[in-house]
């Protein structure tokens, strides 16, 4: 009986130690994420500036259609000079109204660096949004793929999976992309789940396979946008992890529309 009590006491001590260690790791992880979020929030505050008044244009006396008023560019500009000073890899700024997506987009040299580095080069589990290094950094190609983590907090690309619901698409049909030379509206077309292995086997990250990727996405989309890809469109793919099966990915595809 005495030995049983000793073993039970030791097991209790070990359990408490394990719980304490696990709790400490969770706190440290949470702190890391919070530090990364703070860096991006501060960066957004520094580089997003109210845009200058736009030159009035002569328009029809008819009232604008809803689609025209709801998808106009947000009234701010991005100071790319500041972003370039911080990191020359900065290629763009991606913004989705009323969501957590409000981040710089980096041009990667590989598939690993920006998985765990912030846009200022700090090592952090939030990582950065980054362009596939096979694609042009100025979005001049027919296809540009942007990767980002699916954060449980909803930060980074954690909110993309919401597009699996039709109602979410209807509330968020567009995003906005700012570059040093030009700004764009992204009209969301399709969203679908795909395996990482299938993505690699079909080489969907390459511009010459854009047509096959669009056909796949259209036939497997999780929402109906009422819009389709047109010949000559440049498209942006937003890719993040999904959890339907091992190595699943969820991708959103949108067409670039110059401001």
What share of residues are in beta strands?
15-25%
What is the number of E strands?
10
Major β-sheet annotation: 8 strands, mixed, barrel
For this structure, the CATH topology is: Sortase, Chain: A
Instruction: Supply Rg.
Output: 22 Å
Order of helix and strand elements from N to C terminus: HEHEHEEEEHEEHHEE
**Helix fraction by DSSP (H/I, runs of at least 4):** 25-40%
- CATH architecture tag: Beta Barrel
Distance between the termini: 80 Å
How many separate structural domains? 1
CATH top level? Mainly Beta
Average pLDDT for all residues: 86
Order of strands, widest sheet: 3-4-5-6-9-10-8-7
By CATH, the superfamily comes out as Sortase
How would you characterize this protein structure?
Mean pLDDT is 86; it is low at 17-28 and 54-69. A hairpin with a 5-residue loop joins strand 9 and strand 10. This protein has 6 helices and 10 strands. It starts with a helix and ends with a strand. The protein has an 8-stranded mixed barrel with strand order 3-4-5-6-9-10-8-7. Strands 1-2 form a two-stranded antiparallel sheet. With 259 residues, it is of the alpha+beta class. The chain has helices spanning 2-47, 66-70, 80-86, 166-171, 196-201, 210-220, and strands at 48-50, 76-78, 90-95, 102-107, 129-131, 143-147, 174-178, 183-195, 235-242, 248-258.
